[in-house]
Each structure stands twice: as C-alpha cells, then as structure tokens.
Amino acid sequence: MSFSESDLQKIFHRFVNDDITTIKALPGEIDLNYRVTTASADTYTIKISQPGADLSPIQFEAAVMRHLATKQLPFVTPQPIGEITEGPEGRLIRLQSWVEGRMLNEANPITKEQRQRWGVTLGQLSKALQDFDHPAAPTSYKWNPSETLMSRPLARYMTQEQRELSEVFWDRFEQVALPKLGALRQSINYNDGHAENLLLDSSGNIGGLIDFGDAMRTQTINELAIGCAYAGMHVPDPIGAMREVVGGYHAVFPLEEIELPMLFHLIIGRLLITVATAADNAVKEPENVYLQVSAAPAWALLEKLRSVAPAFAEAMFRSVSLPINPIVFSAPHPVVSLASKSLHAMDLSVGSLELGHYQNYEELPLFSRHVQRLLEDQEADFGIGGYGETRPVYTTDAYETEGNYGPRWRTVHLGLDVWGPVGTTVYAPYSGIVHSLAYDPNPGSYGATLILEHTGEQGKFFTLYGHLSKASLTKWGAGAPVQKGDKIAEFGPEAENGGWPPHLHFQVMRDMLGNEGDFPGVAYPEEAAAWLSLCPNPAPFFPTWSSAEIRSSADQLPLRGLLSRRKAKLGYGLSVSYAQPLHIVRGVRQYLYDTSGRRYLDTVNNVAHVGHEHPAVVAAAQRQMAVLNTNSRYLHDGILTFAEELMATLPPELSVVHFVNSGSEANELALRMCEQWSGTRNMLAVEIGYHGNTGRTIDVSSYKFDGKGGHGAPPQTTIVPMPDTFRGLHQDATTAGTHYANYVRKALLKAETTGRFYGGFICESILSCGGQIVLPEGYLKEVYTAVRQQGGLCISDEVQVGLGRVGKHWWGFELQGVVPDIITIGKPLGNGHPLGAVVCTPEVAARFANGMEYFNTFGGNPVSCAVGRAVLRVVKWEGLREQASATGNYLKKILNQLAREHSIIGDVRGEGLFLGFELVRPSITPAAEQMDPTRGGYHSASLEAAYLKNRMRELGFLMSTDGPDENVIKIKPPMCFSKANADQLIHYLDRVLREDID
Ligand code: PMP
After folding, report:
1. CA atoms within 13 A on the CB side of 128
2. What percent of the chain has pLDDT over 90?
C-alpha cells in the first residue's frame, strides 16, 4: 500500500508543527520511506514499517543512532524524532532528521583518499560502538557476512554457471572461515557501510551516514568486510581498492591477527548474500529493481575474485595493517657455490647506468651480450642481484594491464638473479620434495623451471629455480624427494632458458597461490609490498654473498629528501612539476619512467624531438665525445656538414648560421643582430610571448614581464595583441590577419611621428606560451612587409615549433608563406643536448660582423654538431615529418570528435604534432571565476585544466597547460608518438572529462 500526500501531511503534523511542501518516495527493501521538506525548509524522513512489525528492532536502531550522537564523530547520522502507531493495520511510523549529502557512489571517480576515508569511517564506527550494547540487538540476520551460508539454498535460483562459482566460494567459506569465526571479537555493528549509505559533503569528505536498519551484533570485522565488498565493485583492481579501505580502517581501529585472514572470506560472504538474494528476488519480486541494483557488479566482482588466492588478498591487506611474520632460514646449503668466485653486484634497475641504453635490454640477444660484457668488464665470474629491484624490462604494450590508476606494468623483481656460466650447478638448500616443474623455452619465459616444497619450523615454504637446462628436469617428477645439498639442476643455455643470458632466477615463496610449475617473478609496484612479503629476501640462500650487497626495493623508492635538498640548493625560482613531483630516471622514445618503473606517455616534451634517448643520437654523442670536443676556432668537418644539412631544410635566403647552446642564447644573438642592423634596441613583440631567460630576451617576453614578479614592458619594447581568433579581439578568420597586423602598423606609424623606430619584430610561428595559437592567414606577411619598410628585421622564433614538428613543412614560418631575416632554433635541434642556432641572411650576417668577434666557447663544438646532425638525419630517415603530419592530423580529428562529446573543449587547434585544446565553459567564454578586462573579456579556466593535467598524470599521461589563463592543454610529444598513443590518450581524456571535473 502507499500513502497519499494528505495522509503523510496528517501524520507529519502529529510530530512537528510545520507544513510539508515536497514529498519524495525513496527506495527501500522493507520499509516505505519518504523524504519530506517543510515550509520552514527543514528536511526529514518518514519511515513506515510493515503492518505488525516488531517494535524492538526499531528501538534498537534508534538507540544505535542516539549512541553515535554522543560520540565526537566527523560525520552525522539521522536522529530519531518520534514514533507512532497508525491505522487499522497498526503500522509503526517514525520521523527522523534528514542527512544532507551526495552518495559516495555518485562520486566520479571515487578517489584513493575517499576510499581511505571510507575505511576510516567504518573504523570510527567500530570504535564508537565498542562500548555499546542493547538487549534487542539482533544476533542473526540475512545480510550478516558471517551467516552467508544461510543464503546458500537460494543458489537454486541462479544459473548453472553462477551456481558453480558461488558453490566454490561457499565450500571454501565453510571449510576455512566458519570454524574460526567464533574466535573473532564481536560488537554491535552498523553493518551496512556501502557507498549509497555514505554521504559526501560539499568538499568531497564523508560527512554523513544513513540507514541503520541492518545494525546487529556480529563479528566486528564484518563492518570492514561490507565496505570492502562494495569498494571492490566497478574498478579494474578490486583488491587494490579494498586495501585502501582496510588501511583507513586499521589506522583508527587496529585489526587483530586472527581477523586478517578472515577478511577476504567475509567480503566474499557478503557478496554471495547479495547475489543470492538478487537471484531469489528476481523470481519472487521481478518488478523490484532496487533489489537487483548491486547484483550485476557483485557478480562481476565475484568473477574477478575467483582467481585471487586468499593468501594474496591477506598479504595485500596486511601490507597496510599488521606486520609480517618473518621466516627465519637457518643454515641452508648455498644454492650456488660462490666461495672463491669473483662476484659483481649487478644493477638492472630502471635508472641503472650499468643497464644503460634501452637497446641493451629490449631485445634478448642484445641483453645477453650486454650482461656478458658487464661481467667481462668487471672480471667477475657471477653477477648477482635483483631482489625487489624495479626493472624497465616488462613495460611494453604487450605487458600492459589496467589498474585503478591507469595502465600498469609488473616491474618489481621478486627473485634473485645469479648471472653466470651455462652448466653452473644448482644445489638444494634444504630437503623437501619437488612441488612442480615446467618447460617453456619461448623467448622471455622461465625456460626450464623447478619448484621445491620444504617444511620448516614455521611451516611450508617453496623455492623456485628458473632458466635451467632442459636436461636438469629429466630426473625429476612432482613429489620426488630431494635432500639438502643435492645437485638439483644447472644453468641452461639461451636456447633452453627462454632466450635470456645464462643465469639462475631463484625465488622463495611462502605460498604457491595456486600456481604450479611457474610463479610470478615480477609484481606491480603498488602491490610490491605484498608480493615481497610473500616472496622473502633470498639472501640467506647465498651465505657467501653479503646480503648488504643485495639491492632491495627500498633502494629504488623515490629518494626521500630530494625535494628539500633541491629547495635548499637550487635556485629559488625553479619550480617543480606537479604537486606530487615525479622522480623520472629513464626516457625511452615517447615515454618517461619513474623509479617504480611506471611508464608515462610524454605529450609535453618537444625537446626529445626524435624520441627520448634515440640510439642514433646517443651513439653520435658518445662516439664524438670519445674522440674530440673543442671549440669552433679549429677547422672541423662536423660543423660544416651539419650547417649544410641544416640549411638544406631552409629557404636559400637563410644561408648563414651561428651555433649557440640554447634558445635563449639564439634569441639574444638575434636581438643583437637587430640592434646592429638598425641602430636601435627598440623591438616589437607579441603579447604572452616567451623568448628566453637572458636580459634582452626577457625584455621582449611579455609572458615574463607581464607575469608574476615582472614589472611590465621595458621602454624599448612595444607589445602587440596576441593574434588569437578564438577568443581574442578579432575572431573572423578571414580578416583577423589584417586586423592584428594593424597593431604593428599602428606602432610603426607612431614611430614616424615620435622618431622612435624599431629594430625588428620577434614572434613565434605558432604561439606556444600563448596557448598553441595558430597565426591567422596573412598575418606574418603583412607584419613583415610593414616592419621591413621601416628598416627593421623579422625574427621567427622556431625554438618550439621548428624542425619538422608542424609536419607539412620543416619550419613553422613556412605555414605563413614568409621568409624571415633571422630564425632562432633551440629545443629540438639537440634532442636534449644543449644546442641552438641562429640562421640569417648573408646581409644580416655581414652587418653583424662589424669587427667585434662573435665567439661562443661551446657553440658549434664537434659533439654538439654530431648530435645535431644525427637529429636531422633521424627526422629524415625515419620520415618523422610525415609521421607528424599523419599522426597529428589523426589526433586532431579525434580531438575534434572528443570536443563534440564534451562542450568544455571550446577549440582544438595546431599543426602536425604541435596541438592544443582550450577548455571553456559553457560555450565560447572560457570557464572560471575571474574576468580580465584587459584581454578582451575572457575568463580563466585554470581549475578544470589543472584537474585534467593532474588526473592525467595520475593515469600515466604527462600533459602541460599554458595560455594566459592556463586553460589550454598543449600536446607536443616526441615525434615518434603513434596513432595507438593518440587513441589511448583520447580514451583517458574522455574518461577524465566525464569525471566531476569542476
Ligand atoms: N623561445 C621559445 C619560444 C621558447 O619556448 C623557449 C624555451 N621555453 C626559448 C625561446 C628559450 O629557450 P631555452 O630555454 O633553450 O633558453
């Protein structure tokens, strides 16, 4: 039955002297619930029980809420206001205060902090309810995880497949969990901490908790188990999400040792109740959708948990709660006889200089050669190391999986490697039996593997021997006994060991986690603590090798104190990217790696033009560095060949080059040339332009002198408006070029009357700091003509845009159909090596050479020239300009598609792989709070752009923001950026743009 508005109005008046203005029926399993608001703007819940409902549970529920109200809790709960029995059926009607807030499950995304707070909230509940009891507290209830077996008969309503899955879990619960439940502490639990009952306040903190209808006396840990069961839904990695809840809970209400192994079973217990109840209801009450709500994600989660070993879940939960019980390995026989051998601690970590270039490990035969060479160089018989080491080896697309925070790779090595000769004998450290063996010679696999099972004082453990010879296995079968000190195997050759350099991978495991013949040898960084606890340090098995020399993951963690040392010792004006700074230790093509081995797609770095650490560039530098590096006052072929090859990409007018070491130096020199040419330092420059960090270049950089710490334009500089057709002063693309050029003409005209002439005009060919502003058609043509008419020079700053990045052309100015008098080149020319150039016409060069020598100690040195020439050649040989065109056009197309989905993207622009998109809200007006009247009335959208940038970083994508309002996302990756990269970038951008971005 339902209640009419006037019924409810009448009922309400019995409690409160106020009038109801709105009524909304709320979903519920048993009670009828209504949310009402009143004329005096108060909100309440009216709860109407089933006829003849027992009063005592309701009194109990009210007592729980009242008890919590006596505690200092950071969240509020509904409070009972009154209760009456009404109508011929004798329905109990209650009024409660309403708790305001948005349900946690509506947050998108649910953040790590929110999951931790979820656990904290449940822990606070457990703590607050420790001193509470009530005679009417139920002790048995369908939704109690401990009583999951009560739901088992409902399995008959499930499909065959569902039933099979559930029965496996229920069997395990019965055998493993049930016998131990009695020993766990009990308390009154709230017992319903799922994400629809936790309410967020306006700052996203958990500020409210509702629905006390499931409260009961049960095992205290069920409070946490229920939260975990729901936290694991809708995420790629449920155990990772649950662990965050566990960590929060334990921090306020510490778990007990006997509870921890039970948690996983109770989580599953609760999920089974959910799916069993849903199966039952689907038959009995097919129209009640509420009852089906969490069934689908619960099934999906159970399906995922099928392959999760309880010991692994326990290790994960333990890694944020209780300490690990160490295993003591006493007096093992050495696994490899290292006495009197010469040993080398091998560093194969992600940033290892010993591991060196990515070519040394990407292909196994080259890796073999590299390891061999390292051992020879060290005159070592064996190389040892790798326990807990983060390695860059398995970080290609093939090994990528999706975690809760974007793409992830298993990079933390769980075993110890002993690199050495084929045929080296491997001994059994302890007696035991053969657990399992396997043979897989495919490249990258373990090859021949043997696993032994031992029984020590603290129970069973296992030892694994990988990359053995095939013959090693022939004498063994599962279950065969092994004696301590037996020769069990030998190091295999590459053809049999999975293609690796000859070595032994030795690993210790506390639990096989259901594996046979194989076991994961590497772990995801975020799971490393759990895996390393399951796979203890094998150092004791190599007694002649000092354990101090065995690197552990602790060595790889971001060095604590880097930030404070940096702040103390480096220039105070130096910023660091991201609130959580990145500790990057390796670059490979379009990717950067942090110390955990996490791979980031780099869409920011137009310096690593042909790809981070391109082998041809690295080799060119290394080879020349080894032979000669000196200044350019001696004759050398390198500088000339480089100059000629560079000029072959330029119009014939630009035929004289001065090599320098940076973009700033290049522009500094170009500005001096203008002064020398014209006799004046006066310059015209564009708003928000940046041209360098030297005195003269800062003086033409409005980005700096109009920004923080700046003092406005110096007298010799005249700034003209940024020729922005999206939100600037002139937006009609067909006439904007002329309109914007008019500002230059106006300044020049003024000079005619004031006598204050200009030495030149400096401008980028696409405005980078301005926010990837593509110049309107005809702009440079008109400006250049006007400037030259008055005797000035035209500089095109190609530091960001040049060297093929725009795809169609080698140089950005070509997009405008002009030839500058001077171009300045920086960033991409050396692919990271400090190298810049100023290329000008012979006339400019001649005027500049007035007798005063232009000498530059490092400019044009043989190493820099070798590097620059290699970069140029790679651009040509690898067709990177063509790739920039094809990939850039594709990316622009899918960015435009994305813009159609998300109105916050107001404009997509750029050329080749120099792209950007601008965030605006709601339409043409850039979003946010402030209006800046000086720039034609547009707003700042920095908040949304900053969210996007930081969230994308969390998901593994480096992006930068720029533009006067920091609301433009720039995309200017290394030019080897692929179409697959573009697709992945868009996939994640789309995801983040769907989140609660504002
Ligand atoms: N010009 C432009 C357009 C730039 O973006 C930069 C650097 N961001 C420079 C000049 C200065 O180059 P560098 O930092 O190599 O001195």
Report:
1. 23
2. 87
Pocket flag, ligand 1, residue 605 (CB < 6 Å): no
Q: Ligand 1: does its nearest atom lie under 6 Å from the Cβ of 692?
A: yes
Single-letter amino acid, residue 629: N
pLDDT digits (tens, 9 = 90+) for 612-666: 999 999 999 999 999 999 999 999 999 999 999 999 999 999 999 999 999 999 9
Contact call for residues 848 and 622 (beta carbons, < 8 A): no
Ligand 1 center to residue 664 CA distance, Å? Answer: 6
**How far does the centroid of ligand 1 lie from the alpha carbon of residue 771, in Å?**
15
Structural contact between residues 409 and 599, judged by C-beta atoms closer than 8 angstroms: yes
List residues bridging with 33 in a β-sheet: 26, 47
d(C-alpha 83, C-alpha 991), whole Å: 47
Ligand 1 site, residue 764, Cβ cutoff 6 A? yes
Q: What pLDDT, on the 0 to 100 scale, is given for residue 394?
A: 83
Q: How far apart are the C-alpha atoms of 760 and 743, rounded to whole Å?
A: 14
Q: What mean pLDDT is predicted for residues 323-331?
A: 93
- Is residue 826 in contact with ligand 1, taking CB distance under 6 Å? yes
Q: What's the gap in Å between 599 CA and the centre of ligand 1?
A: 27
* Ligand 1 centroid to residue 827 C-alpha, Å: 7
pLDDT of residue 927: 45
Q: How far is the CA of 982 from the centre of ligand 1 (A)?
A: 26
User: Does the pLDDT of residue 820 top 60, yes or no?
Assistant: yes
- Given the DSSP bridges, would you call strands 793-797 and 760-764 parallel, antiparallel or unpaired? parallel
Dihedral sign, Cα of residue 130, residue 135, residue 140, residue 143: negative
pLDDT tens digit string along 377-417? 999 999 999 999 999 988 888 889 999 999 999 999 999 99
Residue 929 reports pLDDT greater than 80: no
pLDDT one-digit tens code per residue, 744-766: 999 999 999 999 999 999 999 99
pLDDT score of 924 more than 70: no
Tokens of 870: 């290699």
The closest-lying atom of ligand 1 relative to the alpha carbon of residue 694 is: 16
Indicate if ligand 1 lies below 6 Å from the C-beta of 639.
no
Q: What is the DSSP letter of 471?
A: H
Residue 261, classified by CB atoms within 10 Å of its CB into exposed (0-12), middle (13-18) or buried (19+), is middle
Coil, strand or helix: which one is 26? strand
Q: Residue 1: what pLDDT?
A: 57
- The phi and psi torsions of 15 (rounded to 5 degrees) equal -95, -45
Q: Ligand 1 mean position to 274 CA, how many Å? A: 60
Q: Which of 605, 664, 693 to mutate to test the pocket of ligand 1 (most atoms within 8 A of CB)?
A: 664
DSSP 525: G
Q: Any idea which of 10-14, 197-201, 300-304, 652-656 has the lowest mean pLDDT?
A: 10-14
- Ligand 1 contacts CB of residue 187 (under 6 A): no
The phi and psi torsions of 102 (rounded to 5 degrees) equal -100, 140
For the cut 80, the answer to whether the pLDDT of residue 552 exceeds it is no
Closest ligand 1 atom, CA of 667?
A: 10
CB of 662 closer than 6 A to ligand 1?
A: yes
Distance CA 562, CA 866 (A): 34
Task: Supply 253's token pair.
Answer: 């209400």
Lowest mean pLDDT among 20-34, 809-823, 874-888: 20-34
Q: Choose one of 671, 699, 827 to mutate for the ligand 1 pocket test, by most ligand atoms within 8 angstroms of C-beta.
A: 827
What number does the ligand 1 atom closest to the CA of 764 have? 3
CA distance 930 to 918: 17
Question: 797: Cβ below 6 Å to ligand 1?
Answer: yes
- Give 88's pLDDT tier (boundaries 50, 70, 90): confident
Cβ density class 925-942: b for 16+ within 10 Å, e for less: ebbbeeeeeebeebbbbb
pTM of this structure: 0.94
Is 166 close to ligand 1, i.e. is its CB under 6 Å away? no
